[in-house]
Amino acid sequence: MGTQPELALINDSIEAANFRVQFYRVAYGLASEDQHVTPTEARRILAGVYKGARLRVEWAITEGMPRQQVKLAFLLIQCVEDALPYGGTLRITHNGMYWRLEADGRTRNQDQELWQGMCKGEEPEELTPSKVHYALVTYATEDAGRRMFCHHSDDHIEVTF
């Protein structure tokens, strides 16, 4: 008896759910100053979460990074994913001092208020559960001891912190 398609589908779903849980643990979990995330771990999690997705994510960082900063990057990845409902490419880099998330794709205009507030470090006034990561970016930016700069247009997003 060979592998049944139903079992393969169930296995794929379980694997995707496991990667999503790992992503959420980094993005929403506790992060102390002495914790680090290796580039291998970040790439593995992102590859699993975005396997077959419309958004292609490239973690172009080669050294281990403080978990507080990776947490902020993962929350921002969710914001970029929301802004690019039709897909696109996202590249995350670090030059030794600053992080840069740079994305290309057709963006959604309805999130302008969320983006403007987030980039100014303001908590959104009206927030649905599906957009909570926008509010958490403000706190994660502060916890990581960073300041954020954003540029958001019809087909390009750039966030530096």
From TrEMBL:
<protein>
    <recommendedName>
        <fullName>Histidine phosphotransferase ChpT C-terminal domain-containing protein</fullName>
    </recommendedName>
</protein>
<dbReference type="Pfam" id="PF10090">
    <property type="entry name" value="HPTransfase"/>
</dbReference>
<dbReference type="InterPro" id="IPR036890">
    <property type="entry name" value="HATPase_C_sf"/>
</dbReference>
<dbReference type="InterPro" id="IPR018762">
    <property type="entry name" value="ChpT_C"/>
</dbReference>
<feature type="domain" description="Histidine phosphotransferase ChpT C-terminal">
    <location>
        <begin position="40"/>
        <end position="155"/>
    </location>
</feature>
